[in-house]
Amino acid sequence: FRRSSQSATPKSTNRHITVLSQYCGIRDEVRRRNLIVGPSLQTVASRRRRATARLGPLHTPLQSTLYDLEEKESTASTSDEDTVFALSSGSGVTAVAVIRISGRNAFDALKQLLSPYSLEAGAEPPKLPTPRMASLRILYDPLSSSDHLNRMRDPLDSALVLIFPGPRSFTGEDIVELHCHGSRAVTSGVLKALSSLDSVRPADPGEFTQRAYGNGKLGLVEVEALADLIVADTSLQRKQALQQFDGRLSRLYLGWRKELIKGLAHAEAVIDFGDDEALGEEDSSFDSSENDGGMSVWADVRPRISSLREAMDRHLEDASRGELLRDGLRIAIVGRPNAGKSSLLNLLAGRDAAIVSSTPGTTRDVVEVVLDLDGVRCSLLDTAGVREEIEDGVDEIEIEGMKRARLAAQEAHLIVGVVDCSDQKRGLEAVQELIRADGHSDSARSSPHNNLLYVLNKRDLFEGEMEPCGVDSETFAISCTTNQGVDIFLAALSKRALAMISQEGDSSGDLSVVGTEGAVITRARHRRHVEAASDALQRFEVLSSQGYMALDMAAEELRLASSELGRVTGAIDVEDVLDVLFADFCIGK
Ligand SMILES: Nc1nc2c(ncn2[C@@H]2O[C@H](COP(=O)(O)OP(=O)(O)OP(=O)(O)O)[C@@H](O)[C@H]2O)c(=O)[nH]1
Ligand SMILES: [Mg+2]
């Protein structure tokens, strides 16, 4: 740390250091090393300029120190010096394969590949393509023998070559992209050639993105969005990930955090002045600050913080739409044995995923099929038929199957009850029994009827008109054999699924599905931190009404809220998150 304001007294500077190290979660480190370290004054000044350009004028020493520190955090973690390469397109044979090289030796490595003669033997280095312009070049194998004048190296491929000098690149470092032919012989030849160079090494999974993060090219929330985008299965998942990637969510959190830091700076200033005035003076000055300063400190801050907390609470009250869309809905198919559950699953999946037979009790394990219902990712779960354990032919395996069926129903977001329409009464009872048994009320669903659809199957075997079956959930008469009624049922199921990830009154699947501003919580991690921030602000509201004595404590709550938001965006304490996150990435990303 370095004092960044001449006007701050040593005492308040020290306080800032304590506050800041606590705020950054590095207090113990600072204590242990007993060190006060900081960048040169010049660096501080240039960071301050950058922060000012980004965030507007800085008002107080504390605020400017905070910004300095944030800047330092984001630049301190630049990636290591190695230059890395990887096949960034999928493995296996493709028409085009993209190989990326990132790091300060990237261009040197490219020169090695572009040179038809050995550079070590004194050949003239080849010219690099114009930055960001595709150029068709021959790649040569540095492993093949060549001498300066006579023998050329073996060509590896004729490839499109692109270079992106840092920092204007994905990782912020120099990047080379080779668009080769996608055969195994070409890609393995180029990768082998790169491996033979001392200056580069193969990349770890997610290392390109990690470098982009380390160099401040992507925020944590964007990295998470990128991870989601890479594995998105459906159109709505893609839309949501793209919206998050475009920075909507982090802008929201950064905006909130900026507001909190403003309030905090305000409080710190008052704490300092209060302290300094009190120095050497008696209780009289303390009294005055209690009456005036104490009450008015928060006068402008409180309403702003209150509305901030309201915004957070609104943000949290989203019925987990973003998370549902990201993780997918679970739809359990339940009912009596032989009702046609497995037949329905196979029909919807378009393949024979589960065994169908006329023997009751065929399905034992839960069979899962992933479906894209109008852009919503859904896991459809076929379960064992439920019936009385005393019925004929029930063995212990089937009992275990029924247990699993109940569990699947419990964890499902939607339940499809399949009933043989020639045996409606028993069929409906079995489903209702199952739902009662799972104690729905405390699950994610508010009311069981909202999340239950009945399918009256084997319509083809049923003669005459269907009687209304007297349940208050939607029912659909279908036949898995003739496909009768299946389209209508599928449309209703999709509508339900969409409604669960949409805002109220909107089931169109438009962009607005994922929130009017697109800023939707997509991970439990975000929810946890935003909840903690909102809780802290609630405590702040109480403490800030208690005058000067509680000033410190109230300020502490603001600090806490701000650091919780900092954890979402990655400004603070994110090592553990990063480890987990980058482990999910594939190599070459
Ligand atoms: N006629 C007719 N038969 C059907 C229909 N749907 C299913 N079946 C038959 O009903 C029998 C049972 O079907 P499954 O899909 O295995 O029933 P299930 O509910 O999975 O049964 P369990 O796995 O034992 O719980 C099979 O012989 C199917 O061919 C239908 O709509 N019409
Ligand atoms: Mg079955």
TrEMBL record:
Keywords: GTP-binding, Nucleotide-binding, Signal, tRNA processing. Gene3D superfamilies: P-loop containing nucleotide triphosphate hydrolases (3.40.50.300), Probable tRNA modification gtpase trme, domain 1 (3.30.1360.120), tRNA modification GTPase MnmE domain 2 (1.20.120.430). GO terms for molecular function: GTP binding; GTPase activity. Its main location: mitochondrion. It is found in: Mitochondrion. Belongs to the TRAFAC class TrmE-Era-EngA-EngB-Septin-like GTPase superfamily. TrmE GTPase family. This is TrmE-type G domain-containing protein. It comes from Thalassiosira oceanica (Marine diatom).
